[in-house]
Write a structure and sequence with these properties.
19% of the residues lie in helices and 30% in strands. It is built from eight helices and 28 strands. The protein is elongated.
Length: 417
């Protein structure tokens, strides 16, 4: 199919609104089902494949919440002070093995088991000590400053449910119940490659007309941050037979295939044609700038996203479409990008009907308000604009003009990556 035969594709078709394109991508993505068992330290960031029940109470015994003196609440009068006999000390890992009887108390440290007979801890700042006599100057409530057994987690309780993505607190909780290994979903496999006769591999000298292939490195970085199994297939030349072989090879083992370049309607743009021949194409044009010529479909069991070739377009379309697909494949619910309202410091013009993503710098002014400025030239080939920016300024589809001083939506990069 030559460029003049592509009249029904690409830019001649109505572009799909970004929200609908995202919905279609997420509907088509299905969580991986294969699992693996991992030590909990290696499971950080992974998604639990089954519930985890605790075999023990946490804490396993009543213990002190602070340094003080363990005593019997029944020994305390209605009004302070009250003198008690000090009979020993309890430390975390070295409990007091006797029993606290009427009129007695035990020096106790934070985390130490509360001795038999005691049920309350008075803070050390609220007592006076003279040899073996402890005078309680401010009366605590009964049961004060005691962490009860099973207060955090009870034996038999589901401590973590399947589908939870394990964060640092989850890893600590698993350790607290003595779980050393968990069953998690495997990582999604994402195969990716760049296309183009003009691309040169980093580390080699360029020939006339060549440029270095930056997109694969950008894609690798973004994929690594999402904790997937990234399969780098290199650069594939603009030859239909080579592109077909590359896509077919990627589809054999990947859950998602991502390519950059070759998805527009130029003389050497063959990927849409090849994808239609190998599988099913859902859409090939999205109403965004940059990133309009974006292909999405399925090749066998694998999802396919054909991203544009311009470096900024690759990043915009990845974060808006590939990222939610990967989250769904990982077993997570795709997260809507975080939006912050900020005061725009410059006038912005937009072509109605498409959502534009401008590179911006988000900060606060002297009053604490969020303000945002553009990074300068916004061409989709200006990758340096992404290194200078810390957010996208999101210009909605129905907006043709945003006056300086107006409020705009901003997507902070920290929430995307």
């Amino acid at each position: 199919m030559r460029a003049d035969q592509k009249a029904g594709c690409g830019h001649d078709e109505p572009a799909l609104p970004l929200s609908k394109a995202r919905d279609r991508v997420c509907e088509a993505a299905v969580s991986v089902s294969e699992t693996e068992s991992l030590p909990i330290r290696q499971a950080l960031g992974r998604v639990l494949a089954e519930d985890v029940r605790s075999a023990i109470d946490v804490p396993g015994h009543a213990n002190s919440a602070m340094d003080g003196y363990a005593l019997r609440a029944g020994d305390l009068p209605n009004e302070a002070p009250r003198a008690l006999t000090l009979i020993g000390a309890a430390f975390a890992g070295r409990p007091f093995l006797g029993r606290v009887n009427q009129g007695q108390c035990v020096r106790i440290m934070t985390g130490a088991p509360v001795p038999d007979g005691a049920d309350t801890v008075v803070m050390q700042e609220r007592v006076s000590v003279d040899a073996e006599r402890v005078q309680v100057n401010a009366l605590p409530a009964a049961g004060a400053n005691v962490r009860q057994a099973g207060e955090d987690i009870k034996a038999g309780q589901v401590a973590l449910e399947d589908g939870v993505q394990l964060r640092p607190a989850h890893i600590g909780l698993l350790a607290s119940i003595g779980v050393a290994e968990v069953t998690v979903l495997r990582r999604p496999r994402v195969a990716f490659f760049s296309t183009g006769d003009e691309l040169c591999e980093v580390g080699r000298p360029t020939r006339p007309g060549q440029i270095y292939d930056s997109n694969r490195y950008t894609l690798f970085g973004m994929l690594q941050r999402l904790d997937v199994e990234a399969i780098d297939l290199g650069v594939i030349r603009d030859r239909p037979e080579e592109l077909e072989a590359g896509l077919a090879r990627a589809a054999e083992g990947a859950d998602l295939i991502i390519t950059s370049g070759g998805v527009s309607v130029g003389e050497a743009d063959y990927l849409l044609e090849v994808a239609e021949r190998l599988g099913k194409v859902d859409f090939w044009s999205v109403a965004i700038k940059p990133g309009r010529p974006t292909v999405f479909g399925k090749l066998g069991d694998a999802l396919y996203l054909g991203l544009p070739g311009n470096p900024v377009s690759v990043m915009v379309t990845f974060y808006q479409l590939a990222k939610p697909a990967i989250e769904k494949l990982s077993g997570l619910q795709p997260r809507e990008p975080l939006l912050i309202r900020a005061l725009c410091m410059a006038t912005i013009k937009n072509k109605a009907g498409r959502r534009e993503f401008l590179r911006g710098v988000l900060s606060r002014d002297e009053t604490g308000r969020y303000i945002v400025s553009k990074t300068g030239h916004q061409g989709s080939g200006i990758l340096s604009s992404m290194t200078q920016a810390n957010c996208f300024i999101v210009v909605p589809e129905d907006s043709e003009l945003i006056e300086a001083g107006s409020q705009v939506d901003v997507q902070p990069f920290e929430a995307l990556v």
